[in-house]
Amino acid sequence: MYLRGPAEAAARLGPPRLAAALVAGAAAADPPAARATGGCYTRLFAFGDSLTDTGNFISYSAAPGPVARLPYGETFFHRPTGRWSDGRLIVDFIVERLIGTPYWPPYLAGKTAEDFRYGANFAVGSATALSQGFFEKKHLNVDQITPYSLAVQIGWFQKLLAMLASTDNEREEIMATSLFLVGEIGANDYIHPIFQNKTFGWIKPVVPLVITSIAASLEALIRLGARTLYVPGIFPLGCAPRVLFLFRGSAPGDYDLATGCLRWLDDLVVHHNTLLKAKLADLRRAHPGVSVTYVHYSGEVLDIVTSKGRHGFDERTVLDACCGGGLHNANFTVHCTEPHYYRIGLRSRPFVPAAFGPGTIGCFCPGSNG
């Protein structure tokens, strides 16, 4: 599933803003071995969902859907690449600035060690922190939930590390001089149930399980020798146009007066991010020689929503999708790959959209931003 609106708005500003903030922090945390080579890091390894996926979903899916068609990829690559964006994602800017190369393959598209000389991207659109089997046991329809959860992505990394490093010394050097971006991940663990009519009471107990899964993956990377890890929180789901459309019959008191977003869903996000930050603090105490940094994506989104004019957005449309029809341009029957609907997007509002995976929620806003 693919969310649109303020989250995508943050990502419109993301390449110059979110990426720059992360790059600044990561540069300050350069491991000595990496600095000696003249670069920030030798490799970037990323895990997550369609906020970060640069082609894994499209590589394995027999029916990838709209992401395989224009206008996805239109502005920078001039073709669909599997990114849920008209151009580059935040992570593309990070790898370009930290590693110094625009070439960075999705894991499923690489074949040799040379393909992964700058690292790899393991993120998959619609990915969850919990396994597909977890949701199946909870009697959810898993057709839109990829089997390639975070734990599976960590397994892919272990296989790749064995390919790249034939000795313990080589493995240690790779781990010590690489940057690990773990997330954004977890939003789909809540979005999938929400779009299958599960209640807040059903979803909230899932949050600690999601955090435990993320922590287990971080622990696995640290045990392998990772020294620098960045872990983003999730975006405010209550601001997503398709969510606002789905719950369009909500009572006025269900909305936050300052943002216009659904309060109960954003409270869920705050709960997730609070537990995540606490778990990261535990990891820092347990591993004092490891840098574990929380990335506050949610704050960037809420800043855009509450300070619309400062960021160039109209107060009336900041919560709207950039194309489509119906309330918030979020009618479920309208797809942005239909030429009429994506051409009505405002070309003055370029973006790199924030996504939580492929499926029933899709959006694209044409623009000049790569």
UniProtKB/TrEMBL annotation:
Its domain of life reads Eukaryota
**Gene Ontology annotations of biological process type:** lipid metabolic process
Sorted keywords for this record are: Glycoprotein, Hydrolase, Signal
Q: What InterPro entries does the database record attribute to this sequence?
A: GDSL (IPR001087), Lipase_GDSL_AS (IPR008265), SGNH_hydro_sf (IPR036514), SGNH_plant_lipase-like (IPR035669)
Q: What GO MF annotations does this protein's record show?
A: lipase activity
Q: Which Pfam families match?
A: Lipase_GDSL (PF00657)
Is Disulfide bond set as a keyword in this record? no
Record bears the keyword Glycoprotein: yes
Member of which family?
A: Belongs to the 'GDSL' lipolytic enzyme family.
What protein name does the entry list? GDSL esterase/lipase
Q: What is the organism of origin for this protein? A: Panicum virgatum (Blackwell switchgrass)
